[in-house]
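Dear colleagues,

As part of the handover before I leave the project, I'm documenting each prediction I ran so the next person doesn't have to rerun anything. This entry is a single chain, and its sequence is reproduced below.
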Amino acid sequence: IFSILKLNSAPATAAAASMCGPDIQTPSAIQICRIMRPDDASVARNNRDRCVATLARVEHTDFLWPMCIGEVAHISAEITYTSKHSVEVQVNVMSENILTGTKKLTNKATLWYVPLSLKNVDKVLEVPPVVYSRQEKEEEGRKRYKTQKLERMETKWRNQDVVQPPNTVSYSQSSLIHLVGPSDCTLHSFVHEGVTMKLTDEVAGIVAARHWKTNLVTASVNAINFHDKIRKGCIKTISGRMAFTSNKSVEIEVLVDANSVADSSQKRYRAASHSSLGNRSETLSQKKKKEREKRLEEGKGRYLQMKAKWQGHM
């Protein structure tokens, strides 16, 4: 379809003709690159030891120019350097206006891949060397390889030096930031309440999982208060923290803040959920601050009321 459109379109002026690139009398071709999938193979397909290229590092990604709806994207990738166990790939993305033939570079990226054996994913395979057009390219690629390798090792060392704090309220407290899109909203551009309820339950589950580090389920939802509507385009911040813990359950308080990208007004509504963790026995250490002690007493009162209500139902 793109070829037909390009063949039948002609620039209106000589200036536009100079922007088209190839001659309008020359047929235009569309190149499609596709990876062969298992469904494309025959029964007697090759069963040799295969490997998979795993993304190890994104060196940089540059968004140089926006790509508009209706333009054709041309993506080209090239191996620019190979070490013994890694490959550097540079990707360029061009956008083409099919009416004028104008092309522009919109994105550039440099990525590093490592080949792993499919039979043993812990085994790193060797990479065949690439043939360089000039010796300078190999030297430049070797410098980029040493630089990224050193940065990766430094990042790995820093991650190993991180000391996990104890299971305190501040440690298990978690937040989730969500941009409200059209699929989250009604026809009137307001967020579905169910979308917010799902996100609050996810955050509550994360808080409980970080504290207990085991499987858990939501046992009940005490109350959900919707104070205001959230519009499309807002940024929602869902924050959860523990309010009370018994031997086999935890009460988690969740707050939702909605900030408009264009408007500085802030909107908030609150939800509280009570999650049960089965037979897991855990006792939260005594709170030192008065605010935490007050929240603990309030949570204990709600827990006793909820427990009595459950026993009455049973």
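The helical segments are 2-8, 14-19, 135-160, 169-172, 193-212, 290-313. The chain has two domains: 50-151, 169-313.

All the best with the project,
I.
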